[in-house]
Design brief:
Layout: H1 10-25, E1 29-31, E2 37-42, E3 45-50, E4 60-63, E5 68-75, E6 81-82, H2 88-98, E7 103-110, E8 115-119, H3 122-133, E9 143-144, H4 146-152, E10 154-155, H5 162-179
Amino acid sequence: MANTLANRGKSLEDALDWVHAQYRAAGHIVERPEPPTRAGSIGARPCRFSIPGTAGILDYLVITDSVSYRFDAKSTQGKRWPLNLLELEQARNLDAYSGMRGWAPGLVVQTSVGVWWLPWSERVRARWWGWWATERAAAGLGSLDAAELDLLGERCEGYDWLGAAARLWCREVAALKGAS
């Protein structure tokens, strides 16, 4: 594998590629646009760098018969998921998709404890933007532990995030119908 700064979450992405092959076989559309990069080096080691202004591209698009999921995958080897793994432009893109009917934006988050589907819901958005607004320094706001991830999202069975995402989507739609 090439040494790239964009490969920090490569093992999660490899696992998702395998899961997404199963989704394709089930008839879902799965796309993973390649972010624009340029060749470079760190010392003598060749690598690829993101092109400025393209950092906010979300890595995945999955379209099922009822909803379209636009998301990114983020992983850490620690027990807590640091909010700084989500870039500002990615948060803005998630915000844009959250206002569109039929779209379910979110994140697949992996820690050393498990994998979660974290929908870009009002509660998640408020937590991330609250952290961002406090200059990313407020104690306790900079990461989410397993209990918080369970509260804000749903733990996945292995890397199969679609079941968790669909359940949360159905709950959100039911709640909206109940509110009207």
